[in-house]
Amino acid sequence: MADVYFIGAGPGDPELLTVKGRRLIAEADLVLYAGSLVPAEVVAGAGPNARVADSAPMSLEETHALMAETVASGGKVARVHTGDPSLYGAIREQMALLDEAGITHEVVPGVTAGFAAAAAAGRSYTVPEVTQTLIFTRLEGRTPVPEGEKLRKLAAHGSAMCIYLSAGDPEGVQSELLAGGMAESTLVVMAYRVGWPDEKLVEIELGGLAEAARLNGFTRQTVFLVLPGQGHEDAGKAKSLLYDKDFKHMYRA
């Protein structure tokens, strides 16, 4: 048992919340969620006597004070984050303050937008004989990116990518990927507010990414799925061996 639970709320669809996450929200005395990214429907299962607070306008110190106050009075906290808390979730700073205060905590994973977007698009990040690697990353902005993780350097690997927090500069995303050696014909899925009622998916070739993003107004809350080897001309060429009748393993003679 912990005092504070960091719960991954998923990308927006309340039904993508885990069973454990839903239970902990129902049991919590304080449900603290980022209202700018987590729909109110996700925390609608809070108990009738629970305090439900939107952390979007709060500072780190203010959210910590609320959690500490609840724990001091014998209560349990559900700290609800969008997607999965481990990815761009800013949980390290919160956990450090809880550790200093002697408050126990636990993380409950959630569905991140990159996986929800691939599911909604009916796409796989990995393609046999093309790429077996997925890179989660972002374009450098106000938050610096280490030199070795610049987008063009990661693009040079030619692997699948899921690019977060970069919709404000689609031109930068496109130019960096092209500078890294990716072909203009590389398939890109742009997923806007995936899991929300106004979700929108657009498939485009890399060479038209910036224009399409601007045309659709994808300037925030958008992830870019970069999928080498999955354009129309590549469809059906590569197949997994897992269910091939000639592929032998311990469960198939």
Would you write up a description of this structure?
This protein is of the alpha/beta class and 253 residues long. The protein has 7 helices and 10 strands. The protein has helices at residues 19-27, 60-72, 91-100, 113-121, 151-155, 170-179, 209-216; strands at 4-8, 30-33, 51-54, 77-81, 105-108, 134-138, 160-164, 187-192, 200-205, 222-227. The strands form 2 sheets. It has a 5-stranded parallel sheet with strand order 3-2-4-1-5, sandwiched between helices. The longest helix has 13 residues, at 60-72.
Order of helices and strands: EHEEHEHEHEHEHEEHE
Helix content: 25-40%
Would you report the number of β strands?
10
Structural class: alpha/beta
Number of helices: 7
Radius of gyration (Å): 21 Å
Describe the global form: elongated
What does the oligomeric state look like here?
single chain
State the low-pLDDT regions, or none. Answer: none
CA-to-CA gap between the ends? 45 Å
Largest sheet descriptor: 5 strands, parallel
Major β-sheet strand ordering = 3-2-4-1-5
The average pLDDT value, as a whole number, equals 93
Estimate the strand proportion: 15-25%
Tags for this model:
5-stranded mixed β-sheet, 253 residues, 5-stranded parallel β-sheet, alpha/beta
